[in-house]
């Protein structure tokens, strides 16, 4: 090339990759550069974009050859190494070594910690949480302080959490597969929900806020489940036989050394004490994540959690099968003979387990193992010794196949592991308005959320359904008001059905609204109290008009002014004009005109 390229030119990264990959190949093929042996491979260099991490044995010859190779490619490409920004550290058996090669040329030597690709590492995994996750809590709080003064709706605040805060921890969740203390998630949730509820206490259960719109939730993120879902990407790579990498060979060698069967821990339900013996926090967390996902996958696909399917449980390293002294079982000779699951001990179609003599005939175990047999059977809970139509291999293969076929693993894993919480109390309360008809609450929630694009009105509906609006009847009970009576009529207690439907100051507005709708549609319309509160199941536009009216009443209450029909009409017009401008900007005017069939 005779001339340079412009900044932002799309060919720029490709040209850089040609040079950096050539340099990496030269380093890997240079016999004078001795790397670190990993399983059957030798690790010398790891690349990500323009960051390079080199691993050498620490000899002077390797250091000199490495910098000579880098210097040669620097002269050839013009992409020179900035040695003042480069860092080095002794690891493994040379940890704490007092030799510091190339320090006179500006190479910085660290003793305990170092940073690469935005992640702080230490020589032991015990400090990874303190170096990375813990310090992020303060950063998240500082980000939220910039948004506290803005008058955002609940939906708007959740949008801020998802777009500005989650990305700050997403990288750590997906890259560092370590055990994160529950304390971190408690502190993070406290920060997030203090922001959502303006520093006050929670008005709605957090699990209900994480529900889907169809369950009356706001799709708030559950940080703990979100962190586990990110780790499922590691699980997929470990289970994928076609995927090969240096880090995977390390983990698989650990599994091979742990037991004669490489997949025993994948099929087991091992406790944390067993996983800690692996000596790899990444592998231990991947297995723990696998157990949680498998539990919820079975519940979704087969209608029951995996731990309740007794015959499919692995006998060995099972957290539910242990002696009084917390001794978990593994009979290597039985495992080699093919005894893996509880189903191998059962004798269908007959109830109960096989006799010791039957095990000898079926699996050719030793005749001297009767004591081991009795000790094992004595410690297996009776509720696990039950046959099932499902087989262990089917469950394992189904989960593995689904994972390998799924492209967006974290998203799929999050939806699978997030436990939905049914708002039973709210449903029982509001069902009293609709007796004896049965309410399709899923359709009701979807209609109310999708009938409007306003985040404030959506947030209002959420508060209305969950009874999170501070009405006088409730405020009087907690001694925040001197009277429980309605803010408009001041005669009856201010309940939800009263202030939004039955109040003498509000009822004429409903009558005028229904009358105007009948005139526009030329159809009879009989609206019940429940339909006024939650809309018409068969007509989303009427649901929107009724929701606007309730929100208009809500505004009037907190502005201490009486509502009237003319004010409601003006409010409808203002919302229509706003939606028209948005639809015009987004080229969605046909949808807008289909929605606004008539004006009141």
Gyration radius over CA: 32 Å
What percent of the residues sit in helical stretches (DSSP H or I)? 40-55%
Number of strands: 8
In spatial order, strands of the major sheet run: 1-2
Morphology call: globular
Percent range for β-strand residues? under 5%
Major beta-sheet overview: 2 strands, antiparallel
Distance between the termini: 69 Å
Number of domains: 4
User: Could you list the spans in which at least 5 consecutive residues all have pLDDT below 50?
Assistant: none
Nearest-integer average pLDDT: 89
- Report the structural category: mainly alpha
Number of helical regions:
27
Q: What would you say about this model in short?
A:
This is Reverse transcriptase domain-containing protein. The chain is mainly α.
Summarize the structure in words.
The protein is mostly helical. It folds into four domains: 12-111, no CATH class; 131-221, no CATH class; 244-414, no CATH class; 429-595, no CATH class. It has helices at residues 12-29, 60-77, 128-131, 133-145, 154-175, 182-196, 206-209, 223-239, 246-258, 264-267, 272-276, 281-302, 332-337, 356-363, 370-379, 392-405, 409-417, 424-431, 441-450, 455-465, 472-477, 496-502, 507-521, 529-534, 540-558, 565-585, 589-595; strands spanning 36-38, 41-43, 45-48, 51-54, 87-89, 108-110, 113-116, 119-122. A two-stranded antiparallel sheet has the order 1-2.
């Amino acid at each position: 090339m005779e001339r340079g390229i412009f900044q932002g030119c799309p060919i720029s990264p490709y040209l850089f990759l040609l040079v950096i990959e050539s340099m990496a190949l030269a380093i890997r093929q240079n016999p004078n550069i001795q790397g670190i042996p990993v399983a059957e491979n030798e690790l010398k260099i790891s690349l990500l974009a323009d960051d390079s991490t080199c691993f050498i044995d620490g000899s002077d010859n390797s250091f000199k050859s490495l910098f000579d190779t880098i210097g040669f490619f620097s002269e050839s490409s013009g992409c020179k190494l900035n040695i003042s920004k480069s860092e080095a550290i002794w690891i493994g058996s040379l940890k704490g070594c007092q030799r510091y090669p190339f320090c006179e040329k500006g190479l910085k030597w660290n003793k305990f910690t170092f940073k690469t690709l935005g992640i702080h590492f230490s020589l032991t995994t015990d400090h990874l949480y303190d170096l990375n996750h813990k310090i992020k809590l303060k950063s998240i709080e500082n980000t939220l302080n910039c948004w506290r003064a803005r008058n955002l709706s609940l939906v708007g605040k959740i949008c801020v959490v998802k777009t500005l805060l989650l990305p700050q921890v997403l990288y750590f969740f997906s890259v560092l597969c370590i055990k994160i203390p529950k304390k971190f998630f408690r502190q993070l949730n406290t920060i997030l929900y203090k922001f959502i509820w303006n520093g006050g206490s929670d008005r709605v259960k957090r699990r209900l806020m994480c529900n889907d719109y169809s369950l009356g939730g706001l799709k708030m993120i559950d940080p703990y489940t979100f962190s586990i879902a990110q780790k499922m990407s590691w699980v997929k790579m470990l289970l994928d036989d076609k995927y090969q990498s240096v880090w995977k060979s390390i983990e698989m060698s650990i599994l091979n050394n742990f037991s004669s069967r490489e997949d025993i821990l994948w099929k087991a339900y091992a406790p944390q004490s067993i996983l800690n013996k692996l000596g790899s926090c990444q592998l231990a967390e991947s297995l723990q994540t696998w157990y949680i996902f498998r539990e919820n996958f079975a519940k979704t696909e087969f209608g029951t959690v995996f731990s309740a399917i007794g015959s499919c449980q692995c006998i060995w390293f099972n957290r539910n099968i242990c002696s009084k002294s917390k001794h978990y079982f593994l009979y290597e000779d039985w495992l080699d003979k093919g005894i893996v699951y509880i189903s191998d001990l059962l004798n269908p179609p007959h109830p109960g387990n096989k006799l010791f003599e039957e095990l000898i005939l079926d699996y050719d175990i030793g005749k001297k193992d009767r004591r081991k047999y009795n000790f094992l059977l004595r410690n297996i809970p009776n509720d696990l010794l039950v046959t099932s139509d499902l087989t262990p291999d089917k469950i394992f293969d189904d989960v593995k196949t689904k994972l390998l076929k799924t492209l967006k693993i974290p998203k799929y894993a999050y939806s699978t592991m997030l436990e939905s919480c049914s708002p039973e109390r709210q449903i029982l309360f509001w069902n009293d308005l609709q007796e004896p008809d049965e309410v399709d609450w899923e359709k009701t929630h979807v209609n109310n959320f999708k009938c409007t694009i306003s985040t404030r009105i959506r947030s209002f509906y959420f508060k209305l359904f969950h009874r999170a609006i501070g009405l006088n009847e409730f405020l009087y009970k907690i001694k925040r008001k001197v009277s429980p009576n309605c803010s408009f009529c001041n005669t009856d207690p201010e309940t939800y059905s009263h202030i939004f439907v039955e109040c003498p100051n509000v009822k004429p507005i409903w009558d005028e609204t229904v009358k105007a709708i009948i005139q526009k549609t030329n159809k009879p319309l009989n609206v019940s109290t429940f339909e006024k509160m939650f809309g018409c199941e068969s007509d989303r536009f009427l649901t929107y008009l009724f929701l606007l009216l309730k929100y208009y009443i809500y505004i009037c209450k907190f502005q201490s002014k009486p509502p009237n029909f003319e004010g409601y009409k003006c409010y409808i017009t203002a919302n229509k004009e706003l939606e028209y401008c948005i639809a015009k900007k987004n080229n969605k005017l046909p949808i807008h005109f289909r929605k606004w069939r008539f004006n009141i």
